[in-house]
From TrEMBL:
Transmembrane segments: 247-273, 300-323, 343-363, 392-410, 422-441, 695-721, 748-772, 784-807
Family designation: Belongs to the ABC-4 integral membrane protein family.
MF (Gene Ontology): transmembrane transporter activity
Name by which UniProt lists this protein: ABC transporter permease
Superkingdom as given in the UniProt entry: Bacteria
InterPro entries, per database record: ABC3_permease_C, Macrolide_Exporter_MacB
Species of the source: Actinomadura harenae
Length: 824
C-alpha cells in the first residue's frame, strides 16, 4: 500500500499539491502562533530586570496586595495606591541597616513635554542616573532634570516652573542627567522632597538584606534580586501588556486553527471528489472499499508529514514578522521577541498529520463506496450531494451557534460585549453553514443566476448549468469564500457594534460640557489645576477622584470595582445616573452608590477595601443601572483614600458662551500636564484603547483571511486544472478562447457570489443575536454593518478567484491540445 501511495503522489502531483500547500500553510500558521504564545509566557519577559533600584541591595516597600480572607478562600487583589511606610517601621529599619528614603510624587515641569515624577536626589544613584552637567541640588530651590523633560535642552541655571501637589513654584536647574526610558524624573534636594511629600514610599537598602528583613518583619515587603522590579514605576505594565498580547494571540490562534482544519478538510474532500473515476478503476481491478480507504489514509499521512516539515520550517520566520508587526502597532511590549521554542513546533508537527487524517476521514468513507461501474462513465455527474451524517453535523453546528447566541441573550447578555464570548458562536454558525452548503448552493445558484437565463446567450446558460450540475464542487469552492467573508462580516460587525453601543451609552450619560484630564501619563490633576479651572468665568468645576473598591462577591471571591470619589452634592451634576432603587441624595460620608452587579439593596451595609487597602463598612444609599460594563461605585471624599483628583468635570453656566469658556480653560491650564476635551469625546474612551481593540480584531482576521485567500486560489486552481476536458469540449464545438475564458470567469464570479451570500446570512444572524443581547443590557444599542471591509474582502476574493480560474484558460494551447484534453 505504501508503494502505491507513493506512486499516486507522483502521478497526482497537482491535486495533492493543493492539499500540501493548504496543510503546510496551516501548520506554519499554527506553529507561528504557538511560538508567539510561548514568548508571552517566557519568564525572562514576564520578570524584567529591576530599573529604579537596580544598584540597591534590597528595597523595603509597602505590600502591593490586599489580603482578603473569606470562609471559602483567601484572595490577594493588587492595590493601586499606597499609604507609605509607617514612621516607626522607617526608624526601626534605619537603625538596623543603612538605608536611603525614597519618595515618589507628581512633579510636572511646566510645558508641553512629558509628565514628570519627583524623587529625592539621594535615590538617583540606584537607577544609574549620572550628571551630564551641573551639580546635585543642594538648596530647596534647586532641581536636577533629565534630558527628556518638558524643558528639552535645559541648561544649568535656567529657571523653570514645577507643579507639585502643594502648588506651583519656580526652581533653578542645578544639573542635568541623562534620560531614563522608564520614567521622566525631576530630582529635588532631600529636605525639599520631604516637604513636598512627607510620606516615605520606600527604603533603598545598602547593607544586609537579611538584617532589613528581620527589622521589617511582616509589616512590609523586602524585595531582593529580580523582585526589585516590583518597586519600579508601574511594575505590572509589561505583564499586563504580555497578558493582553497573549489573549489576542490566543483568540487569533483559535480562529486560525478553526480555519486551517476547515480549509484542509474542504481541500481533501475536493481532491477525493476529483479522483472519483480513478478510485472506481481501482474497484474494477479488485480493490475493496477498505483498501481504498487505506490508500487515501496513507496518502494523507505522507502529505501531512511532508507538509508539517515544510510548515515548521516556515514558522520561525512568520513568528518573527508577527512579533515585529505587533510591536510596531503597539499591541505588544517594545522588547517583545519570539525565540524558537521546541514544544510549539513539536505540537504543530504532530497536528499536521492529525488534521490531515481528520480531513480525509469523511472523504475516504465516501470514496470507499464508489462503485466500479462509475469507471465506465464518460461524464462526471455527481450523485447524492448531501450525506445524512453531513446534514446532521451541519444542523448540529448551526443549531449550537444559534443556541449559544440565544443563551447569551437570555442568561448572560452582558457577556456579548466580550470578544471571547461571541467568537465561538460565529465559528459554529460558519461551520454549520459550510456543512449545509450542498443543500443551499443549488437554491442560491438558481437565484443568483436567474438573470443569466434572460440574457439569451449561450455563455450565461453554460455558467448556470455547469454550476448547478456540480453542486458539491461549487460548495467546496465556495467554502473558503464563506469563511473569509463570514469571519470579516461577523467579527468586525459584532466588534464595531459593541464599540458603538458603548459609545452611545456613555454619551447618553454625559451632562458635563468639558473634561480637564491628565495627559502624558500623569497620575491625576493637582490643586493648582483645580483652582485655575474654578477661577474661569462661566465654568463650574466638579472634581472627581479615582480609586478601586474591593468587596467579597458571590462564592467568597474578592471582586474589584472602579470607584469615583465625589462630593455628595456633586453626584449627578455631570452625568445622568439611572437609579433603580434608593436615591442618590442619600449619599453621605458613611454611604456609597453601587450598581446592580453588587446585588445589594439600599440600606444594606457592606465591608469594602479602598485602593490603598483602607477598610470601611458603608451603607448602600442607591443602586444604579450598570450598562454593558460593570458600573462605577461612587463614594465621598471622606472614604476616598489618598487617591488624587483624577479629573475635573466642567459645566458651563447658563448664559455663558461655550466657546469662550473652552478657550479660557485651555489658556488657564496650558503647560500644566493636563488637556481640555469635550465631555462627549472623553465618554468615547481612550483613542489608544479603541485603536488597540480594532487592531486586535484586524490581526486576528488578517492571519485567517490571508490563509483563506490562499485557500481560495489553491482550491480554484485545482478545479481549473481538472476542467481541462470541459475546456477541450468547448473548443471542439467551436468556442473561441475568449468565450471559454468568459465561461470560466462567469463560473468564478457565481461561486464567489454564492459564498458571499451565505456569509452575509451568517453575518445577519450574528448581528441579530448581538442586538438581542445588547438590547437587554442598554437602551443605546447600535448595530454596525462593516460594508466597507465586506466590499474590500469580497473584491479580493473575486479577484483571486478570477485569476485562479483564468490562468489555465488564457494560456495559449499547444497544437492538438483540444483533442488531448479528451483523453482519459
Amino acid at each position: 500500500m505504501l508503494s502505491i501511495a507513493l506512486s499516486t503522489l507522483r502521478t497526482r502531483r497537482l491535486s495533492l499539491a493543493g492539499t500540501f500547500v493548504a496543510l503546510a500553510l496551516g501548520v506554519a500558521m499554527t506553529a507561528a502562533m504557538g511560538l508567539a504564545l510561548a514568548a508571552t509566557s517566557d519568564p525572562a519577559a514576564r520578570h524584567p530586570r529591576p530599573q529604579r533600584f537596580a544598584q540597591a541591595d534590597a528595597v523595603v516597600r509597602p505590600f502591593r496586595t490586599l489580603t482578603v480572607e473569606t470562609a471559602t478562600m483567601t484572595g490577594h487583589p493588587t492595590l493601586d495606591a499606597s499609604k507609605g511606610l509607617p514612621p516607626d517601621l522607617v526608624a526601626r529599619v534605619s537603625a538596623a541597616v543603612p538605608v536611603v528614603q525614597d519618595r515618589d510624587f507628581p512633579a510636572h515641569v511646566v510645558g508641553d513635554g512629558p509628565t514628570n515624577v519627583g524623587h529625592p536626589w539621594s535615590v538617583a544613584r540606584f537607577a544609574g542616573y549620572r550628571l551630564l552637567a551641573g551639580t546635585a541640588p543642594r538648596a530647596s530651590g534647586d532641581i536636577v532634570v533629565a534630558g527628556d523633560t518638558a524643558v528639552a535642552g535645559a541648561r544649568v541655571g535656567d529657571r523653570v516652573g514645577v507643579v507639585t501637589g502643594t502648588g506651583l513654584r519656580t526652581y533653578t536647574v542645578s544639573g542635568v542627567t541623562a534620560p531614563a526610558g522608564f520614567e521622566h524624573a525631576v530630582f529635588f534636594a532631600d529636605r525639599e522632597a520631604a516637604r513636598l511629600s512627607p510620606r516615605v514610599d520606600g527604603l533603598a537598602v545598602t547593607g544586609s538584606a537579611d538584617a532589613a528583613r528581620r527589622a521589617t518583619g511582616t509589616s512590609a515587603a523586602v524585595l531582593t534580586g529580580a523582585s526589585r522590579h516590583d518597586a519600579d514605576p508601574d511594575p505590572d505594565r509589561e505583564r499586563r501588556a504580555l497578558d493582553d498580547t497573549g489573549v489576542l494571540l490566543g483568540v487569533a490562534a483559535g480562529i486560525a486553527g478553526f480555519v486551517a482544519v476547515f480549509v484542509v478538510a474542504s481541500t481533501f474532500a475536493l481532491a477525493v471528489t476529483q479522483r472519483r473515476r480513478e478510485l472506481a478503476l481501482l474497484r474494477v481491478i479488485g480493490a475493496t472499499p477498505r483498501q481504498v480507504r487505506r490508500l487515501l489514509t496513507v496518502e494523507s499521512l505522507l502529505v501531512g508529514v511532508f507538509a508539517s516539515a515544510a510548515g515548521c520550517a516556515l514558522a520561525p520566520g512568520g513568528a518573527g514578522l508577527l512579533a515585529h508587526w505587533l510591536v510596531r502597532r503597539g499591541l505588544a511590549p517594545s522588547g517583545f521577541t519570539v525565540p524558537v521554542t521546541p514544544w510549539p513546533l513539536v505540537i504543530a508537527f504532530v497536528t499536521g498529520p492529525l488534521v490531515s487524517l481528520l480531513g480525509v476521514t469523511a472523504a475516504s468513507r465516501r470514496a470507499g463506496r464508489v462503485r466500479p461501474a462509475e469507471a465506465l462513465r464518460e461524464s462526471r455527474v455527481e450523485g447524492r450531494t448531501m450525506t445524512p451524517v453531513r446534514r446532521l453535523l451541519g444542523l448540529a453546528a448551526f443549531g449550537s451557534g444559534l443556541a449559544t447566541l440565544a443563551t447569551t441573550a437570555v442568561s448572560d447578555p452582558s457577556s456579548a460585549a466580550d470578544r471571547k464570548g461571541y467568537t465561538p458562536a460565529i465559528m459554529l454558525l460558519i461551520t454549520g453553514a459550510a456543512l449545509l452548503a450542498p443543500v443551499v448552493v443549488p437554491r442560491l445558484t438558481r437565484l443568483l443566476t436567474w438573470p443569466l437565463t434572460r440574457s439569451g446567450g449561450a455563455t450565461g446558460l453554460l455558467v448556470r448549468e455547469n454550476t448547478l450540475a456540480a453542486a458539491r464542487r461549487t460548495a467546496g469552492v465556495a467554502a473558503p469564500v464563506l469563511v473569509t467573508v463570514g469571519l470579516a462580516g461577523a467579527l468586525l460587525g459584532t466588534g464595531a457594534s459593541v464599540d458603538a453601543t458603548r459609545t452611545a451609552e456613555a454619551r447618553q450619560r454625559v451632562r458635563a460640557d468639558f473634561v480637564v484630564r491628565p495627559s502624558g501619563g500623569s497620575r491625576g490633576v493637582g490643586d493648582v489645576v483645580l483652582n485655575r479651572v474654578r477661577s474661569v468665568p462661566g465654568a463650574v468645576a466638579v472634581p472627581v477622584g479615582r480609586t478601586s473598591v474591593f468587596t467579597v462577591g458571590e462564592g467568597g471571591v474578592p471582586r474589584r470595582f472602579d470607584g469615583r470619589i465625589v462630593r455628595a452634592g456633586d453626584l449627578g451634576r455631570t452625568e445622568r445616573l439611572e437609579v433603580v432603587d434608593g436615591t442618590i441624595a442619600n449619599l453621605g460620608d458613611d454611604a456609597l452608590v453601587v450598581d446592580k452587579e453588587w446585588e445589594k439593596r439600599p440600606g444594606d451595609r457592606v465591608d469594602v477595601w479602598l485602593g490603598d487597602g483602607t477598610r470601611a463598612s458603608l451603607r448602600v444609599a442607591a443602586v444604579v443601572r450598570s450598562g454593558l460594563d460593570d458600573g462605577t461605585t461612587y463614594l465621598t471624599s471622606a472614604h476616598g483614600g489618598p487617591s488624587p483628583t483624577g479629573r475635573v468635570d466642567v459645566v458651563v453656566r447658563p448664559g455663558a458662551d461655550r466657546s469662550a469658556v473652552e478657550g479660557r480653560l485651555r489658556a488657564a491650564t496650558r503647560g500644566l500636564g493636563v488637556e481640555v476635551v469635550s465631555a462627549h469625546a472623553d465618554a468615547e474612551g481612550t483613542p489608544g484603547k479603541s485603536r488597540s481593540s480594532r487592531l486586535g480584531i484586524l490581526v486576528t482576521l488578517g492571519i485567517a483571511l490571508a490563509y483563506c485567500g490562499i485557500a481560495i486560489a489553491n482550491t480554484l486552481a485545482m478545479v481549473a486544472a481538472d476542467r481541462s476536458r470541459d475546456r477541450a469540449v468547448l473548443r471542439l464545438t467551436g468556442a473561441t478562447p475568449l468565450q471559454v475564458a468568459r465561461v470560466a470567469a462567469g463560473e468564478a464570479v457565481v461561486v464567489v457570489c454564492v459564498g458571499v451570500a451565505a456569509a452575509l446570512g451568517v453575518t445577519a444572524v450574528s448581528l441579530a443575536g448581538m442586538w438581542a443581547a445588547l438590547s437587554r443590557v442598554t437602551h443605546g444599542t447600535t448595530l454596525v454593518v462593516p460594508w466597507g471591509p465586506l466590499a474590500a474582502v469580497t473584491g479580493a476574493c473575486a479577484l483571486i478567484a478570477l485569476l485562479a480560474m483564468l490562468a489555465p484558460t488564457l494560456t495559449r494551447p499547444k497544437p492538438g491540445a483540444s483533442t488531448a484534453g479528451l483523453r482519459d
